[in-house]
């Protein structure tokens, strides 16, 4: 079977996570921010799978299932909030919601 | 019977409390009964105690009554205990009787006053404090009474508080006596620190054993006590408050600023006589201060137009006599003069009050004239008081006490004191009879609207009688040997240690004193009755008017104090208006605000910024965990 | 098998970069789907076929489709693309890139320490996953269902459009 070094898998996961983080910081559009969060969640899940395969246990996959569930819940609520924001401000700019300033 | 001693100060205080708590709800009559009655009862009890003391004296002629322990902290023990010896007995008798008569008088005098009950409350509080002062066994209780009378003096001078000038006079009195009070307090600390006890008799004992005469500590303690006495008794240099204190009602001036409070200093020095004997330099300065004050005040009294101010300067001058007596060591002579002075000065003030009331608040004697026909009783009482003040020979009490002081002054060896006293006597006659001749003789210029009634007449008559007969208890050797008063006081005060010249010298001196007093009357008559025009034109000349205004302003002391003490103080206060010490605390608050503003600027409200913050934090934490 | 891993890893990285730098929302979403599919392939290579399928079905198939629906509902149009172009200027991604770079460096450092050792990958069958999930991790399953319930309620409530007051008043009037 395949034998991939653990470090490479984790490196890939870390790289994807950093890219997602970059997206969260960089983008101003809320939808893109949510997408970047999804990227991060996926990367974390990948790390779990890599670890699970290293120990040949299903626990990694189980963790990934939970992460998946959580991501689904978060996306639905988040997109509902995005709809509300758009309804109120007529734009998807994350910077308009700055009433908590000061 | 002596166990009733505690009632003597307690009754006026009880009167004060009753008037305090039932302030608005008593009728005029019950206020008067409470106010006058409490002091009256106190006087009766004092008389009973006096009789009991004289007829069956306690051992050593001393009776102590301890009520309770007030303070007990380690070494510092102060009890509320009263000490009755012949000196304090004389004091309480004079105080209660005079206070009672003045209270009776003011029941009618102040009848139109709106704050009738406030007046009597303050007067009662004063009487209680003064009695505590003279009966106190230890210095702390004494100081309590001392402060109490100072407070009442302030409250009563500024009684008509709606006029700001009265408030100023009250403040002036309070602040000036405060200087003295501070000196006294430091003196008390010094005595306690050095001798370990506050009980008066005890510390005097220990002082004799521990302190050598004229040592630094003895001089310091005596000088500080002298400082306190100067403040309260309005002697040089703290004498300027008393003429201004005449802003208060006349009974107040009579009671506080003539008969009792201002003599508290005299009592203090007499009580702590051991300290002064141990510091002869300070005792000498007591006499010097007394002599100087006597002359300065006497000259100032010659020029005053306000009848109460004349009497105020006269009080300062007469207390100068008492200080002179204390200074040469004639302790009982000073107390004798205190007693006679209390009677005739209160009499003079009350008569002046009757005149003021009769002329509807007219204080200026130049506007008065010929009052003897309209106010006959007042005229006679004022005349008797003036006669006693100028020591009219043989028939007045003042003669015996003043003559005794002059005799002791001569015998002390220092002829200057005697000369000063003699000049002072001349001045006294002139200034007081000036008032008599201007106000009561001559043509009538004003109409009298209100004559004194029963409650005012009785005290006047009683005091006149006392002003005449009170001297007979101490007759000098030239007439007949009858020194019962000084013998009585010698149980408490030491005998005067002077070398007495013979009876002939004493007779000559007495003759001189009488001559001086009579010629003063004659001079006053000359300058102010037939030849008044001459006096007036003299005052109009350059020299005359300069002299007049200088003496009128009390020898410029007020101007001096205003210039060199009050103004610099106000200047400093104004500079420090923003209280530079506050800058430190304000600075802390300001620093806080700066940091707050800094932190606030990080709260932008943008989600991305916050996310960035979280990211940076995560990275840093990772760095710390991994690398450190 | 190893080459499959590396190739799909490269695809994943490239498509992720294209997601975060994309101007058009729909295009970015499509790139994200590609990224997710390649990660699913990696799962398969790593011996987790069950989650590989799950990734495709749920993540790429449900969640991303939800995204697509919402974007289409918002009906953004060309001015949105212009806006994005204006927003994505070098000053914007300088700071974050630096931060991400530091993070990557740290992660590389952490992961490349320790001894290197090859191990063989064994496939974990779905049966194993099922037994473990509903056996020892049962409580996690229950909690996950509660979470989903709360998300359901929240999404319904937040997504509700508030109609004008007149309509509700009319209903009340009729009653």
What labels would you give this structure?
heterotrimer; A: mainly alpha; B: 628 residues; mainly alpha; two-stranded antiparallel sheet; 27 helices; 4 strands; 72% helix; globular
Q: Explain this structure to me?
A:
The complex is a heterotrimer of chains A (102), B (628) and C (175). Chain A has helices spanning 6-26, 30-55, 59-89. Chain A has 102 residues and is mainly alpha-helical. Chain A starts with 5 loop residues before the first helix and ends in a 13-residue tail after the last helix. The model of chain A has no long low-confidence stretch (mean pLDDT 90). Chain B is mainly α and 628 residues long. Chain B has 27 helices and 4 strands. Chain B has helices at residues 7-21, 28-55, 86-109, 116-135, 139-157, 164-195, 200-210, 216-233, 241-244, 250-259, 264-271, 273-278, 280-301, 307-327, 331-358, 371-374, 376-389, 397-411, 415-440, 454-469, 484-489, 503-528, 532-540, 542-552, 557-575, 582-600, 607-627; strands at 63-73, 76-84, 474-475, 482-483. In chain B, strands 1-2 form a two-stranded antiparallel ribbon. In chain B, β3 and β4 (482-483) form a beta hairpin. In chain B, α2 (28-55) runs parallel beside α4 (116-135). The longest helix of chain B has 32 residues, at 164-195. Chain C is an all-alpha fold and 175 residues long. Helix content of chain C is 79%, strand content 0%. Chain C contains 8 helices and no strands. Chain C has helices at 2-20, 25-45, 49-74, 78-87, 90-111, 126-133, 138-159, 165-174. In chain C, α1 (2-20) packs antiparallel against α2 (25-45) and α2 (25-45) packs antiparallel against α3 (49-74). The model of chain C has no long low-confidence stretch (mean pLDDT 86). At the A-C interface, α1, α2 and α3 of A face α1, α2, α3, α4 and α5 of C.
Précis, in short:
Chain B has 628 residues and is mostly helical. Helix content of chain B is 72%, strand content 4%.
Task: Indicate the topology.
The complex is a heterotrimer of chains A (102), B (628) and C (175).
Chain A: H1 6-26, H2 30-55, H3 59-89
Chain B: H1 7-21, H2 28-55, E1 63-73, E2 76-84, H3 86-109, H4 116-135, H5 139-157, H6 164-195, H7 200-210, H8 216-233, H9 241-244, H10 250-259, H11 264-271, H12 273-278, H13 280-301, H14 307-327, H15 331-358, H16 371-374, H17 376-389, H18 397-411, H19 415-440, H20 454-469, E3 474-475, E4 482-483, H21 484-489, H22 503-528, H23 532-540, H24 542-552, H25 557-575, H26 582-600, H27 607-627
Antiparallel strand pairs in B: 1-2, 3-4
Helix pairs in contact in B: 1-2, 1-4, 2-3, 2-4, 3-4, 3-10, 3-15, 3-20, 4-5, 5-6, 5-10, 6-8, 8-11, 8-13, 10-15, 13-14, 13-19, 14-15, 14-18, 14-19, 15-17, 15-18, 15-20, 17-19, 17-20, 18-19, 18-22, 19-22
Chain C: H1 2-20, H2 25-45, H3 49-74, H4 78-87, H5 90-111, H6 126-133, H7 138-159, H8 165-174
Helix pairs in contact in C: 1-2, 2-3
């Amino acid at each position: 079977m395949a034998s991939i070094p653990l470090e490479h898998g984790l490196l890939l996961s870390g790289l994807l996570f950093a890219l997602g983080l970059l997206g969260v910081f960089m983008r101003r559009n809320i939808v893109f921010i949510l997408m970047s969060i999804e990227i991060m969640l996926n990367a974390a899940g990948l790390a779990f799978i890599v670890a699970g395969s290293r120990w040949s246990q299903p626990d990694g996959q189980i963790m990934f299932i939970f992460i998946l569930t959580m991501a689904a819940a978060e996306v639905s609520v988040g997109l509902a909030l995005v709809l509300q924001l758009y309804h109120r401000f007529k734009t998807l700019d994350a910077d308009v919601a700055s009433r908590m300033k000061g | 019977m002596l166990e009733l001693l505690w009632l003597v100060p307690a009754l006026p205080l009880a009167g004060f409390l009753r008037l305090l708590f039932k302030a608005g709800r008593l009728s005029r009559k019950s206020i008067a009964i409470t106010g006058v009655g409490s002091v009256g009862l106190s006087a009766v009890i004092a008389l009973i105690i006096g009789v009991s003391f004289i007829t069956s004296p306690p051992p050593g002629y001393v009776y102590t009554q301890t009520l309770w322990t007030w303070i007990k902290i380690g070494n510092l023990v102060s009890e509320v205990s009263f000490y009755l010896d012949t000196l304090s007995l004389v004091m309480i008798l004079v105080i209660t009787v005079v206070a009672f008569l003045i209270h009776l008088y003011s029941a009618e005098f102040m009848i139109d006053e709106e704050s009738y009950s406030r007046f009597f409350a303050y007067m009662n509080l004063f009487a209680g404090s003064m009695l505590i002062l003279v009966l106190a066994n230890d210095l702390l209780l004494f100081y309590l009474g001392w402060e109490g009378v100072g407070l009442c003096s302030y409250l009563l001078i500024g009684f008509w508080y709606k006029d700001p000038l009265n408030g100023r006079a009250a403040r002036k009195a309070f602040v000036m006596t405060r200087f003295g009070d501070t000196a006294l307090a430091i003196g008390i600390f010094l005595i306690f620190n050095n001798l370990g006890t506050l009980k008066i008799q005890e510390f005097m004992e220990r002082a004799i054993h521990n302190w050598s005469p004229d040592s630094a500590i003895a001089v310091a303690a005596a000088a500080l006590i002298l400082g306190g006495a100067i403040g309260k008794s309005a002697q040089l240099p703290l004498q300027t408050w008393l003429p201004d204190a005449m802003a208060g009602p006349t009974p107040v001036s009579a009671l506080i600023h003539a008969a009792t409070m201002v003599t508290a200093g005299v009592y203090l020095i007499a009580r702590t006589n051991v300290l002064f004997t141990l510091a002869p330099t300070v005792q000498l300065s007591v006499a010097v201060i007394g002599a100087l004050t006597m002359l300065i005040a006497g000259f100032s009294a010659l020029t005053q137009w306000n009848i109460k101010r004349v009497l105020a300067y006269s009080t300062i001058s007469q207390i100068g006599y008492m200080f002179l007596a204390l200074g040469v060591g004639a302790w009982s002579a000073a107390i004798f003069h205190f007693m006679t002075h209390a009677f005739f000065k209160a009499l003079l003030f009350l008569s002046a009050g009757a005149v003021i009331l009769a002329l509807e608040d007219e204080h200026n004697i130049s506007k008065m004239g010929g009052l003897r026909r309209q106010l006959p009783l007042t005229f006679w009482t004022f005349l008797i008081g003036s006669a006693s003040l100028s020591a009219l020979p043989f028939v007045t009490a003042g003669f015996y006490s003043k003559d005794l002081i002059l005799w002791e002054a001569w015998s002390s060896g220092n002829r200057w004191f005697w000369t000063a006293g003699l000049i002072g006597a001349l001045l006294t006659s002139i200034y007081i009879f000036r008032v008599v001749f201007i106000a009561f003789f001559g043509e009538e210029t004003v109409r009298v609207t209100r004559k004194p009634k029963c409650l005012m007449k009785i005290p006047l008559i009683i005091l006149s009688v006392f002003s005449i007969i009170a001297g007979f208890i101490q007759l000098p050797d030239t007439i007949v040997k009858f020194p019962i008063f000084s013998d009585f006081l010698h149980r408490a005060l030491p005998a005067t240690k002077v070398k007495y010249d013979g009876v002939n010298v004493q007779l000559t001196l007495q003759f001189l004193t009488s001559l001086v007093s009579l010629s003063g009357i004659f001079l006053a008559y000359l300058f102010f009755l037939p030849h008044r025009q001459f006096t007036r034109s003299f005052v109009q000349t350059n020299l005359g008017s300069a002299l007049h205004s200088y003496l009128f302003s009390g020898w410029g002391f007020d101007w001096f104090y205003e210039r060199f003490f009050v103004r610099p103080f106000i200047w400093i206060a104004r500079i420090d208006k923003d209280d530079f010490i506050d800058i430190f605390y304000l600075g802390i608050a300001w620093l806080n605000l700066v940091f707050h503003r800094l932190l606030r600027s990080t709260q932008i409200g943008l989600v991305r910024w916050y996310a960035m913050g979280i990211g940076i934090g995560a990275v840093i934490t990772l760095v710390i965990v991994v690398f450190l | 098998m190893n080459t499959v891993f590396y190739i799909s890893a490269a695809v994943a990285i490239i498509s992720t970069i294209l997601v975060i730098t994309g101007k058009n929302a729909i295009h970015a979403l499509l790139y994200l789907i590609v990224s997710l599919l390649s990660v699913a392939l990696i799962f398969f290579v790593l011996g987790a076929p069950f989650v590989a399928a799950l990734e495709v079905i749920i993540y790429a198939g449900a969640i991303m489709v939800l995204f697509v629906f919402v974007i289409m509902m918002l009906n953004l149009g060309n001015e949105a693309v212009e806006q994005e172009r204006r927003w994505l200027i070098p000053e914007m991604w300088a700071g974050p890139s630096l931060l991400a770079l530091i993070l990557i460096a740290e992660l590389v450092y952490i992961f490349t320490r320790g001894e290197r050792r090859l191990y063989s990958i064994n496939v974990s069958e779905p049966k194993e996953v099922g037994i473990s999930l509903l056996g020892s991790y049962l409580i996690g399953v229950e909690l996950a269902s509660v979470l989903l319930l709360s998300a359901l309620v929240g999404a319904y409530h937040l997504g509700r459009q508030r109609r004008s007051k007149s309509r509700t008043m009319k209903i009340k009037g009729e009653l």
